[in-house]
Amino acid sequence: MNCRLGCGACCIAPSITSPIPGMPNGKLAGERCVQLSDDNLCKIFGMDERPEVCSSFSAALDVCGKTNAEALYLISTLECQTS
């Protein structure tokens, strides 16, 4: 599965504990990453500054669902179950 451009659920729903440019302590679950543009695209995609956890994420139907709203729900649910 390919990422849906403009989804951004993986940049909002999960907590990220590694530093992100502009967010040296990472981010909380449900907090929008400062590197997520207004059109929900990663501003540091493909750059060395992008956290490894972000670079290693792969879109999958069981995580991303069929819509952006479903992706936000599924990733938020996974975050709650694993935190």
What topology emerges from the helices and strands here?
Blueprint: H1 52-55, H2 61-64, H3 68-82
Rg on CA atoms, Å:
12 Å
Counted beta strands: 0
- Secondary-structure-based class equals mainly alpha
Mean pLDDT: 96
For the report, how would you describe the main beta sheet? none
H/E element order: HHH
How many discrete domains?
1
The general outline is globular
DSSP summary: helix tally: 3
Oligomer: single chain
- Estimate what percentage of residues fall within beta strands: under 5%
Low-confidence stretches: none
The end-to-end span amounts to 26 Å
Helix content: 25-40%
Protein name: YkgJ family cysteine cluster protein
Pfam families: CxxCxxCC
InterPro entries: Puta_zinc/iron-chelating_dom, UPF0153_domain
Task: Give a verbal description of the structure.
The chain has helices spanning 52-55, 61-64, 68-82. The chain is mainly α and 83 residues long. The protein has one domain. It comes from Shewanella woodyi (strain ATCC 51908 / MS32). This is YkgJ family cysteine cluster protein.
